[in-house]
Amino acid sequence: MNYQTSPTPPLFKGIALFTPGGDLVYCIDPSKKTQWHVNLCATLQEWLGLVEPPHFLVPCYTATFDRWLDPNTQAVKCSAIAYSPVWRYRSLLNLIFETHEVVWSQGSCPEELCDPIVVASYRERFPQLWENHDLVLQVDSPIARAPEFPESDLSAIARTDPTRPEGSEGYVLRLFVSGRTTATEKSLQTLYQVLEESLGVPYTLKVIDIHKHPEQAEFSQISATPTLIKLWPLPVRRIVGNLEDPNTIARVLGYY
Fold this sequence. Notes:
The protein is of the alpha/beta class. It contains eight helices and eleven strands. Strand 8 (171-177), helix 6 (182-199) and strand 9 (203-209) form a beta-alpha-beta unit. The longest helix has 18 residues, at 182-199. Residues 142-168 have low confidence and may be disordered.
């Protein structure tokens, strides 16, 4: 940590996202809003024509800088962390964030996410990321939190879902989970049992891992897992947390 006194330097959070080929998108955000990594991944998708946002680049191809005012001491503090794949770009980071006085710390990459073999496995699907396009782009529009999409928007998606069962009585369901844990498997077992034994009409159930598809979780305003959403038939209903009680699931589905 670095401490500074008067005059107070600008307080902000900066996030940089690199590609294996050396392209860079970054933000400088005085309001320190959240979901910037999602926004930067979406920017790379748009500019490089990717099939989907490259969320696998986070955190191993990221660097973050944060300068804030300690509320207790009124001292300015800062931290600067760059992960090993982007460690060599510290001079560039100091240039874009104007932080020449900062000593960077090297972040520790989770082995299961930043293993070079794991990262390389994405090369066939995202070849543009391994090319250098001389891209250094500052992104100006933060995503503070999920937009307030009305439930009618979710139901509109369900109506056009190609997997939706034919007929007005077909159910369209989404289950958001955090990985395939023991608790997730138990919830799925209970849910499948209720659907097969009690529903009595066709249905489609899509299980979405929020770690693999954060953009879908953001759109659907998922605040906790597991979350079950009934998109169709209307009205849209959801249940958060408790998926072990068949009666509770039945009430959400609207036939109990």
